[in-house]
Amino acid sequence: MTTTTAAAETGTLKNHPVVSKDRWLVQRKALLAREKELTHLRDQIASERRALPWTRIAKGYTFDAPEGRRTLADLFEGRRQLVVQHFMLGPEWEQGCPSCSFMADHIEGMQVHLANRDITMLVVSRAPLAEIERFRQRMGWRFKWVSAHDNDFNYDFAVSFKPDEWAEGQGEVYYNYSVRPFPAQEAPGVSVFCKDDAGEVFHTYSTYERGVEVMMGTYNLLDLTPKGRDEHNPVYAMDWVRHHDRYEPAPDVAKAATGSCCHGGD
């Protein structure tokens, strides 16, 4: 027999079905079959992604890095593969995009593992290096972040839009492989490059919009929970995201429920 609980008053927690363990197990196994379908489809798409042809990088991009000027080939740091987060931080911006910052918060835990799989990962923005460094230090990040302020890298990979082009199209730009409205002159993305034994660099893949969720491990855990992502803004679902140093303190639920700490004192 199915019952419901009103333990919470919001989202999917309100009056959610409650069943016996046996009935739960039947439905969980049915869902597991669907999850396995998704896993196999993900593996198939990953294989098709790796099979895509590459394009040779003919333009000589040079970036400003903390240690000096660096070419795109230099950014590989001796490895064969390079993953770039295109981070929305334009010139003279007070701070970086909160959603891009949410992505970047996941980098440092991944870096050592990626490096041991022949991958260098770093961040590129169009802001000058001094502005990047100011924000990076505020956020406490240690990953490499370089500036494309003096080259066409961001424009060529369709994550920055020149003011005249953006204005002429009344906000319509080429983004995510189509011409469409976009509300800003900077956009998020992730791009992948490969370098061969001769030192030539190739572009192998780029993803935009919801494709950048590949970096957001937090979302994978949220998707496991009863409330899920709990996003309700149809225009900008990520309006809940804050820079990690700008969240209000999370409520201490246990303390609020008991009125005291575990030791019973102040």
End-to-end distance: 46 Å
Number of strands: 12
Please report the number of helical segments. 8
- Amount of helix: 25-40%
Q: What portion of residues belong to β-strands?
A: 15-25%
Q: Report the structural category.
A: alpha+beta
Q: What form results from the Cα inertia axes? A: globular
CATH fold-level topology of the domain at 55-217: Glutaredoxin
| Main pleated sheet | 6 strands, mixed
For CATH, the homologous superfamily of the domain at 55-217 is named as Glutaredoxin
Mean pLDDT over the full residue set: 90
Protein model, in words:
This protein has helices spanning 21-50, 98-104, 107-115, 129-139, 153-156, 163-168, 217-222, 253-258, and strands at 3-5, 16-18, 55-56, 62-65, 68-71, 81-86, 119-125, 145-147, 172-175, 178-181, 189-195, 201-208. The chain has 266 residues and is of the alpha+beta class. It has a domain at 55-217: 3-Layer(aba) Sandwich (Glutaredoxin). The strands form four sheets. The chain has a six-stranded mixed β-sheet with strand order 3-12-11-6-7-8. A two-stranded antiparallel sheet has the order 1-2.
